[in-house]
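Hi R.,

Here's the chain you asked about this morning:
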Amino acid sequence: MGAGGRASNPPSQRKIENDEHLKRVPTTKPPFTLGEVKKAIPPHCFHRSLIRSFSYVIVDLTIASILAYIATNYFPTLPHNLSFLAWPVYWAIQGCILTGVWVIAHECGHHAFSNYQWVDDLVGLVLHSCLLVPYFSWKYSHRRHHSNTGSLERDEVFVPKKKSQIGWYFKYLDNPLGRFLTLTITLTLGWPLYLAFNVSGRPYDRFASHYDPYGPIYSDRERLQIYVSDVGVLAVSYGLYRLVLAQGLNWVICVYGIPLLIVNGFLVLITYLQHTHPALPHYDSTEWDWMRGALATVDRDYGILNKVFHNITDTHVVHHMFSTMPHYHAMEATKGVKPILGEYYHFDGTPIYKAMWREAKECLYVEADEGSEVKGVYWYKNKF
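And here is the predicted structure, written out as tokens:
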């Protein structure tokens, strides 16, 4: 009597439902093969259309050009207060559109743009160079990331440290201010620091840089193309220098520089959240295999930006399994594989700003579970 209006779940049950996305991904060998997963995907999803792929390039570059034209021709005529508001709006939208361009160049690096490798490399080189990314250099290191995802010894980027390896200063950053500073530095400087100095990348026995053709990241057959990447970045840098002379430094920063910072921030954030999650395992050499590593990734929801970013955000699991699949088929492919993957498929719809803060708080280092019989599986932890 008197309890008839209590139709909601008790607090404990609500907590379990709300934390469902934190349920750990299985680490046992999957009961399915890659071939069985592939059969669940409609065959047309693996077809690459040169015309369709180029249509995305044209649309993105057209939007970016229109935005730049409006900003450079109409913003100067606005009253100061409106101009003060208009530029941040331009930066945000242009940064998102150019992130989509970045994603298309990333597709080229995976040979997912067309059936012609030379077309993919030419388009990727041009697009990535315009965003100051050394195309071939990143293509080869990123390919090794896909070959070694989830491996503590061989993965290429966002490789977590074991508790015994983290610096003494980590515990002083384990607070709101420390997390804010860490995220700010990561999102603004993380990408150039990774390219130039391999920050957050796998350790090598000597200095590693994406600009060094003779660095340890690359094999002898790849070194000539690293030179080509460097030439591409230098050519665009020279073009920016000429623009500065013609239009002024402030013009170049406002039209190009700040949107590029937003692109860099988004690609670091996207990559970070795809591979950093309390429910995702990492493996040492005693337990790692390619399939379990590919499944140790998570799809995220960026709302309308999923489409702007060509669904690199919410189809990352299937991308790791079939990286030559064009992005415009990845949503259909993801729907096809989810019944096969079952609990091995992980999606987290937590709002991105909350997920970013949570992962920065919860995922400080990796450690095997105490008392676990399986010693080669590591999970993110944060207790010092």
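One quick note: The beta strands are 281-283, 299-300, 347-348, 365-367, 377-381.

Cheers,
M.
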